[in-house]
Amino acid sequence: MRRALQWYLVWNLVALVFVVTGVVLVSWVIARNETLRDAEVTARAVAESIVAPLADNDFHAHAPAAMARMNEALENRARDGSLSHVKVWADAGNGFGTVLWSDEQPLIGRTFELSAAEYAVFGTRDTVSEISDLEKEENELERGEGRLVEVYTGTRDASGAPLLFEVYISAAQLPEDVRAMVGVILPLPIAAVVTLSLATLPLAMSLAHRVDRGQQQMRAMLVNAAESSDLERRRIAQDLHDGVVQDLAGIGYALDSDARHLPEGGALRRHLEHTGEILRRDLAALRTLMTDIYPPDLSTKGLAESVRELAHREDLPAGLVRVEVEEPLDSNPVTDRLAFRAIREALRNAVEHADASSVLIRMWQTDSSVVFEVVDDGVGFDPTLPGPEGHFGMRLISEMVGNAGGTLLIDSSVGGGTRVRGELPL
């Protein structure tokens, strides 16, 4: 329940961050576009009302009087803050332009290469604009003034010859415009997100309660299933012990007794002795099967001791299995049963199928779970391929572990051994 509500609040916070970020970005784009549009309007107005009428033949010839008139007109606009820098260009051909007039006197008369978009404005009344980084050669005297809005607009002089009017306008107001726009736009989506979060909080809590109850019911079902399975296994093991095992043991004793009353070396005695050996071998297999069917009492011995007994069974080669346990381990009926079954199945696979010469079983506990590993040095297998037909023990146990809220991972490679790692909640 607590974890579900924490995730709900986290995702609402993430949504709020996305909204704020989106509003800031949209406000920046809107403010930038408005700044460029205002700069284009200003540049077009100055070009049509001031530059075009004053750009006569005397201006092209750099006559002092004509240059003075242009200086006075444009400097007046610069003084009122509407313009920062100005250039008037003539078409020099092949993508180049010559500066006819500039507020930066050293630039007058120089020729520079223009971009394709800028050069295309010659002979038109189009406008192109951008927030310039002032890195072009023509901006060598304007660098260090921060970012400026750069506008190129086409016009014609008094005689109809094409001109290019370039103007730079300060972008210092842009951050303030963004902040103002954010202040106007942002409260509405924030209020919407907060309102939606508060409105859906009861629903989220209700769903979390339902999920919590569902998990508790599933865990109760797993407990009942495990207990029912253990009860049935105990009944089967008891029936085998009291019935078949006792009968076979009795037959074995009778065969041994009959064999001793027969002459040594006789065919019938050899036959009875051989039959007795088969019975004893089958009895040992039945007793091992009974141990597999009904594991030790985990509630009495504990998981660690039961795993140690499993690793030192008589039918396993001495020294094959090594057990490392970081004790103490907290006890939980469902967790202990599932962990023991998973370890037993992994050990059985390592012995019967992997041809392992060494098996390591490790167990330890975290704050909220029991972790175990079964590592062997056997032949391994390719996990991407389906297992042999009939070998589905680990798959069933993996499903049971998943239903209990845990994880079971199998890592293996051909010739590289196998690692089975499980984690079960306490």
UniProtKB/TrEMBL annotation:
<dbReference type="InterPro" id="IPR011712">
    <property type="entry name" value="Sig_transdc_His_kin_sub3_dim/P"/>
</dbReference>
<keyword id="KW-0812">Transmembrane</keyword>
<dbReference type="Pfam" id="PF02518">
    <property type="entry name" value="HATPase_c"/>
</dbReference>
<keyword id="KW-0472">Membrane</keyword>
<dbReference type="InterPro" id="IPR005467">
    <property type="entry name" value="His_kinase_dom"/>
</dbReference>
<feature type="transmembrane region" description="Helical">
    <location>
        <begin position="7"/>
        <end position="31"/>
    </location>
</feature>
<keyword id="KW-1133">Transmembrane helix</keyword>
<feature type="domain" description="Histidine kinase">
    <location>
        <begin position="341"/>
        <end position="426"/>
    </location>
</feature>
<keyword id="KW-0418">Kinase</keyword>
<dbReference type="InterPro" id="IPR036890">
    <property type="entry name" value="HATPase_C_sf"/>
</dbReference>
<dbReference type="Pfam" id="PF07730">
    <property type="entry name" value="HisKA_3"/>
</dbReference>
<keyword id="KW-0902">Two-component regulatory system</keyword>
<keyword id="KW-0808">Transferase</keyword>
<protein>
    <recommendedName>
        <fullName>Histidine kinase domain-containing protein</fullName>
    </recommendedName>
</protein>
<keyword id="KW-1003">Cell membrane</keyword>
<dbReference type="InterPro" id="IPR003594">
    <property type="entry name" value="HATPase_dom"/>
</dbReference>
<dbReference type="InterPro" id="IPR050482">
    <property type="entry name" value="Sensor_HK_TwoCompSys"/>
</dbReference>
